[in-house]
């Protein structure tokens, strides 16, 4: 496992490099990943616009700011993603915004299809769901926790719908996008600060 994580970290890129990549793909009409369908290309274009908007508009409460800035252990958030992933387009800008507030949080991005061993080690209910954040201790390289592929409220929303209807419909997926837009990243911020508090309880005192 250590070798798999280290190899992926060596191939990782910064959030800004990832944003530049997605922007260039959107311009060229291309996408990351092994599949290159027209639908995935269109999602990449849409996600470039989504991330551009979130990069400019995400706001944090004073309480969240204080908790994030109080965290004093060096960690890395290594996230598996692809440019076409709708959930990732909402989540990655928030991860970046939080990491920018604390130099102890190192945020790195890798592509799922280029890192199959890493993805297989961090499946969600047996599936290769993304985005998947792997939280690492920089001193020991231990895996401290994982996060994703969706924030807690969205996960509950999805699970309830699946329990009732068996699968997610196009209409539901549209409703989920509305949820992200209305929530404005606050559930993600709360989830992340809760996880930081679990690692360092004094952060939340």
Explain what the structure shows.
By secondary structure, the protein is α+β, with helices and mostly antiparallel strands. The protein has one domain: Glutaredoxin (3-Layer(aba) Sandwich). It has nine helices and four strands. The protein has a four-stranded mixed β-sheet with strand order 2-1-3-4, with helices on both faces. The protein starts with a helix and ends in a 6-residue tail after the last helix. It holds the Pfam family Thioredoxin_9.
Draw up the topology in text:
Layout: H1 2-11, H2 15-28, H3 38-57, H4 62-70, E1 75-81, H5 86-100, E2 105-111, H6 116-121, E3 132-137, E4 143-147, H7 152-165, H8 170-183, H9 186-199
Parallel strand pairs: 1-2
Antiparallel strand pairs: 1-3, 3-4
Helix pairs in contact: 2-3, 3-5, 7-8
Protein name: Thioredoxin family protein
Organism: Flavivirga algicola
What are its keywords?
205 residues; 12% strand; Glutaredoxin; Thioredoxin family protein; single chain; 9 helices; alpha+beta; 57% helix
Short description:
This is Thioredoxin family protein. This protein has 9 helices and 4 strands, in the order H-H-H-H-E-H-E-H-E-E-H-H-H. By secondary structure, it is α+β, with helices and mostly antiparallel strands.
């Amino acid at each position: 496992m250590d070798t798999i994580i280290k190899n992926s970290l060596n191939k990782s890129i910064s959030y800004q490099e990832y944003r530049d990549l997605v922007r260039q793909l959107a311009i060229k009409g291309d996408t990351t990943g092994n599949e290159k369908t027209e639908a995935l290309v269109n999602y990449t274009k849409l996600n470039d616009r989504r991330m551009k908007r979130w990069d400019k508009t995400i706001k944090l409460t004073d309480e969240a700011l204080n908790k994030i800035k109080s965290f004093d252990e060096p960690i890395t958030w290594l996230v598996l993603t692809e440019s076409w992933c709708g959930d990732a387009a909402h989540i990655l800008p928030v991860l970046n915004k939080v990491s920018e507030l604390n130099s102890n949080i190192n945020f790195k991005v890798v592509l799922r299809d280029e890192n199959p061993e890493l993805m297989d080690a961090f499946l969600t209910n047996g599936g290769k769901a993304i985005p998947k954040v792997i939280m690492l201790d920089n001193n020991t390289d231990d895996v401290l926790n994982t996060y994703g592929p969706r924030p807690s409220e969205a996960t509950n929303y999805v699970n309830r719908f699946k329990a009732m209807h068996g699968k997610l419909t196009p209409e539901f997926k549209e409703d989920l996008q509305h949820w992200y837009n209305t929530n404005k990243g606050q559930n993600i911020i709360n989830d992340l600060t809760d996880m930081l508090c679990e690692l360092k309880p004094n952060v939340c005192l």
